[in-house]
Amino acid sequence: MSIQGHIAHDVIELKLASHRLWLEGAAEGQPASFAHTNLFGIDFSGQDLREVDFGGSGLQGVRFIGCNLTRAIFAGADLSGASFRDVRGAHAASEVE
Asked: How far apart (Å, rounded) are the C-alpha atoms in residues 13 and 20?
């Protein structure tokens, strides 16, 4: 599957807001998926990204500094130049190396 075009910042914010609700158990929330999406240069620093699907995405230069990446999916993603300083999550280190 190919990578979709660059996603608008407001769409990212809406997905993350719904994801936060889902993490809290709210019925109106849903897990975020950025699978096969071009996220070049996006700054996710400090976000709770538990269980977010980034599979097959273009994550070049993306900042995940201080994020919780527990069970986040990075299979097939291009992580060239991405920053993972101070990430949290049991699987974060093995998922991004």
From this structure: 10
Cα separation of 16 and 27, whole Å? 15
Lookup result for tokens 């993972």: 84
| pLDDT tens digits for range 34-85 | 999 999 999 999 999 999 999 999 999 999 999 999 999 999 999 999 999 9
Phi, then psi, of 22 in degrees rounded to 5: -60, -45
Strand residues in 8-92 grouped as ranges (E): 37-38
Contacts of residue 84, Cβ cutoff 8 Å, sequence gap at least 6: 64, 65, 67, 69, 92, 96
Count Cα atoms within 13 angstroms, Cβ side, for 43. Answer: 2
The answer to whether the beta carbons of residues 96 and 75 sit under 8 Å apart is no
Report the relative pairing of strands 37-38 and 4-6 from DSSP bridges.
Answer: parallel
